Automatic annotation (TrEMBL):
Metabolic or biological pathway, per its Swiss-Prot or TrEMBL entry: Cofactor biosynthesis; adenosylcobalamin biosynthesis
Signal peptide, first to last residue: none
Listed EC numbers: 5.4.99.60
Family in the record: Belongs to the CobH/CbiC family.
UniProt-listed Pfam families: CbiC (PF02570)
Name of this protein: Cobalt-precorrin-8 methylmutase
Keyword vocabulary terms for this entry: Cobalamin biosynthesis, Isomerase
Lineage of source species: Archaea, Methanobacteriati, Methanobacteriota, Methanomada group, Methanobacteria
Gene Ontology MF terms: cobalt-precorrin-8 methylmutase activity; precorrin-8X methylmutase activity
InterPro entries referenced in this protein's UniProt entry, alphabetically: Cbl_synth_CobH/CbiC, CobH/CbiC_sf
Species assigned in the record: Methanobacterium alkalithermotolerans
Length: 216
């Protein structure tokens, strides 16, 4: 089954679309592993934007760390509820605390965005797993800060915030960190990219469920 398609017609359309995507970007992603290629293909398919084949950067440990986290049922934390809603078919928990009362209080008290406060709240409440950020650079900065201070147990980060204020810089900061990650260079990114990357990892974890960790 492809891309969530549940009917024969839907599966045929999805398959044809993926074939078109591969024909357009195969030469741009041939240096990537098969798992990494699958992630980028899904991002391009979800956005209909072939430029993502050139602006996605994936750290060498991202796929392995992410798949192990998913296989172990660790949490996925998102910056906004729209990203949370798009991540599907995961047996573990997908969490978002941006509207949590304690997050709102913390944001007001510390004078930070709710997205950043949500990351801090998650860290204070024992979060461990994958962080998925598609919209808020402030959340990404906070995640890096918490990780570097040893206050947040992070397996990997999908860091693809979109926009012209802070997005590029926050992704560069993630790229320069020790956190396993995928980013999109420049201002491009957003919910569809974040969701595509997360769902691709979930599918990869199912495809690789019988493989040993060192084979991924």
């Amino acid at each position: 089954m492809f891309m969530g398609a549940s009917t024969k017609q839907g599966q045929d359309i999805a398959l044809k679309s993926r074939e078109i995507v591969r024909s357009l970007i195969s030469d741009k992603i041939e240096h990537l592993s098969l798992e990494e290629q699958s992630i980028v293909e899904r991002i391009v398919h979800s956005t209909a934007d072939v430029e993502y084949a050139e602006i996605c950067h994936i750290s060498s440990d991202f796929v392995k760390c992410s798949i192990e986290s998913i296989k172990n049922g660790k949490d996925i934390l998102t910056d906004i509820n729209m990203v949370r809603a798009g991540i599907n078919k995961y047996s573990g928990e997908v969490k978002c605390f941006i509207n949590h009362p304690e997050t709102i209080k913390m944001a007001k008290k510390e004078g930070i965005t709710r997205a950043a406060a949500a990351m801090e709240y998650a860290a204070e409440n024992g979060f461990k797993g994958i962080v998925v950020i598609g919209n808020a650079p402030t959340a990404l900065y906070k995640v890096i800060e918490l990780f570097e201070k040893g206050k947040m147990d992070i397996e990997s980060v999908i860091g693809v915030p979109v926009g012209f204020v802070g997005a590029t810089e926050s992704k560069y900061a993630l790229k320069s960190s020790q956190i396993p990650h995928i980013i999109t260079k420049g201002p491009k990114g957003g919910t569809p990219v974040a969701v595509a990357a997360a769902n691709s990892l979930i599918q990869l974890s199912k495809d690789n469920k019988r493989r040993k960790p060192d084979e991924i």
